[in-house]
Amino acid sequence: MQLLRSYVADFVSLIFPRLCVACNNTLIAGEELMCTDCRYNLPLTNFHLQPDNIVARQFWGKLDLQQAYALYYFNKGGKVQNMVHQLKYNDRPQVGNMLGNLAGKQLLQNKGYASVDLIIPVPLHTKRLKQRGYNQSAHFAEGIAEVLDARVENYNLVRSVATTTQTHKSRFARFENMKEVFKLSHPQSLANKHVLLVDDIVTTGSTLEACGNELLKVPGLKLSIAAIAYAE
């Protein structure tokens, strides 16, 4: 029976090859979603080992953060961009969970994340969520939560305004575009909690800043941030 299953799996893979979400090469037996070469050679930041890393410095004077982190460096046209594209636009939410697991294992090495109580993904507006079917940042959050033994809170922080795309906006325009976009439905439940706010890509940081400012209105709340990638 096991041999038959193996033959069937091999036959299916000939017709529908399993491809790495980063480099698009064919996966071999034992590999899931990402090939071994990409797992070891994608551009990790190791920001979990650098308290004053680039992401942390980006928010100095803007947000009172405990920790700041991104898993990978983002290069236009590179493998990380391809992977994030698969996650966001090709109906591959499981990629987010995988990346969250990888990030969580790194965060375990930094005692500053040990006190995280809740993980909150940057929310999508209900219209965008309906179109996509899932929030890519929520799946990244779920992957981290599995490793850190924390809880994901999906419904407290909400995006009340459907903003236009940020892609071609200047830093100032992005910041203006995000003003008063996010609201908390039950802020009292976050009092005195250490919240890890997660997003997919950090560019100017305007989205995380807008979310963070809303969260930090809660008495006693401590805030950290994490993302899949940092784009210089």
UniProtKB/TrEMBL annotation:
CDD domains: PRTases_typeI (cd06223). InterPro entries: ComF/GntX_DNA_util-trans, PRTase-like, PRTase_dom. Residues 138-228 form the Phosphoribosyltransferase domain. PANTHER family: DNA UTILIZATION PROTEIN YHGH. Belongs to the ComF/GntX family. This is ComF family protein. It comes from Mucilaginibacter litoreus.
